[in-house]
Amino acid sequence: MKNLEVTLRAATPADEPFLFDLRRATMDEHLKRAGESTDEHAHWERLRYRYNDAYIVCCGMEKLGLFKFFRDPNEWTIVQIQILPTHQGRGIAAHLVDAFLREADDAHIPVTLSVLKGNRAITLYQRLGFQVVNTNGTSLQMKRG
């Protein structure tokens, strides 16, 4: 991550238009390839899933993306990570996931996630130690730890 200080702040209802546009920009291609719905209702439903666990990725006042995760006592889960296309390739997602994994390692807790088959993020997750533990028609379930 080259000279980019990112922070997280809790998402608020005022962030919903940004998050909707972010979701369309980052997920439509993957959803279409997987044969999943890209209609507005499906996007809003996914956006609002576990909304209290959603954090806006920021650099200063600029919104760069979304990192949604939760911590259960025996397992932590990364729900979504989306970075604006104009900021992808800078190591932002890797930095966020790596920091999350270091906390999980310190707590001796495994981390899980689900990712659409064919998503470029799979390579990042594998590089960070995730392994495929299950598959369904469109997604891979991955686990680390």
Multimeric organization: single chain
Major beta sheet, strand line-up: 1-2-3-4-5-7-6
**What composes the largest sheet?**
7 strands, mixed
Q: What's the CATH topology label?
A: Aminopeptidase
From the N-terminal CA to the C-terminal CA, the straight-line distance is 24 Å
**Average of per-residue pLDDT values:** 91
The CATH superfamily turns out to be Gcn5-related N-acetyltransferase (GNAT)
Overall 3D geometry?
globular
List keywords for this structure.
Aminopeptidase; 145 residues; seven-stranded mixed beta sheet; 35% helix; 4 helices; alpha+beta
Secondary-structure topology with pairs:
Layout: E1 7-10, H1 16-34, H2 40-48, E2 54-59, E3 62-71, E4 76-83, H3 92-107, E5 111-116, H4 121-127, E6 131-135, E7 139-144
Parallel strand pairs: 4-5
Antiparallel strand pairs: 1-2, 2-3, 3-4, 5-7, 6-7
Explain what this protein looks like in three dimensions:
By secondary structure, this protein is an alpha+beta fold. The protein has a single domain, classed as Gcn5-related N-acetyltransferase (GNAT) (Aminopeptidase, 3-Layer(aba) Sandwich), CATH 3.40.630. Helices cover 35% and strands 31% of the residues. It has a seven-stranded mixed beta sheet with strand order 1-2-3-4-5-7-6, sandwiched between helices. Helix 3 links the parallel strand 4 and strand 5. The longest helix has 19 residues. 25% of the residues are buried.
